[in-house]
DNA sequence: CTTGACCCTGTAGTCGACTACAGGGTCTAG
DNA sequence: CTAGACCCTGTAGTCGACTACAGGGTCAAG
């Protein structure tokens, strides 16, 4: 388990080499050192950091937000309150998106319900009618 | 209410001139004719079509899907079934996104609940702990 | 000592829905 | 007749998260 080259790390983390270099550009990861030829060399612990990134992504955090979380995570003096605040902002954001989607779903379901489907032409389609602004 | 130039139409529809030209590139709208100087001239009824586009967007349809809806809408021989199918596919899509967001929200809420906030440092933050893969 | 797998940098493309010019031509009010 | 508001085409930039080269250099196996 000595330093990993970027290709080995990519395989371990199930990410592409390009993605790793992209994360480096964003400041999310960095190689521990470079070889004489300029090759990136990573310590094996970086795999954990990449898992952190993936988990946070799955929870809806952007890479920019993940950079903040990683910075807080690396600072033992930082307050957990900041992490909590980021988390609660993300929850609020997600809840807003859910509400928007639910409004759409209800509107669409209401329209689909009254559409006779294959028994009618588009002329009598209430969905198109609504989009055209018929009634209200 | 004679032919509208693109600037007048933009004002009526509360869209930018650039957006209108963009919609034209996508095939969503077209000027009825061109003036001698090459100016786009729209019949006033185009405003309805733009409202259709905006309503469909608010319901979650992409501009590509809206192009399909408009094509169906303009073809009186087309079946309302196709419109209904597009609508139901969109409902399914939205429901999937809601489910994904709800899973995120619940995971985040569960983490936030156990975070002591400002009373602890990031070392003891269960949110960062979870992202780092502690437990499970 | 060569072949092929790896690595480097830097740039550009993808998706969707715009937005912003640059470098022209046209139209209208005073 | 001219200033300024309008219009044209064509190209490029924005956001986020990648993805895909091109044109090099490096390394290990046979």
From TrEMBL, chains A, B:
* Keywords (A to Z) from UniProt: Coiled coil, DNA-binding, Transcription, Transcription regulation
The answer on whether this UniProt entry bears the keyword DNA-binding reads yes
Per UniProt, residues of the HTH merR-type domain are: 1-72
- Pfam (any one): MerR-DNA-bind
Q: Name any one GO molecular function.
A: DNA-binding transcription factor activity
> Coiled-coil intervals in this record?
84-111
- Domain of life the protein comes from: Bacteria
Q: InterPro entries from the entry?
A: DNA-bd_dom_put_sf, MerR-type_HTH_dom, MerR_fam, Tscrpt_reg_MerR_DNA-bd
In Swiss-Prot or TrEMBL terms, this protein is called Transcriptional regulator, MerR family
């Amino acid at each position: 388990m000595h330093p990993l080259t970027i290709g080995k790390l990519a395989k371990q983390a199930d990410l592409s080499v390009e993605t790793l270099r992209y994360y480096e550009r964003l400041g999310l990861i960095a190689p521990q050192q470079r070889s004489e030829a300029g090759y990136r060399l990573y310590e094996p612990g970086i795999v954990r950091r990449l898992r952190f990134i993936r988990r946070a992504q799955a929870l809806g955090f952007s890479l920019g937000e993940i950079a903040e979380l990683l910075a807080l995570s690396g600072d033992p003096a930082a307050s957990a309150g900041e992490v909590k605040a980021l988390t609660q902002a993300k929850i609020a954001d997600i809840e807003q998106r859910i509400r928007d989607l639910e409004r759409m779903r209800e509107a669409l379901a209401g329209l689909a319900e009254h559409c006779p489907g294959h028994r009618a032409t588009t002329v009598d389609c209430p969905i198109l009618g609504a989009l055209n602004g018929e009634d209200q």
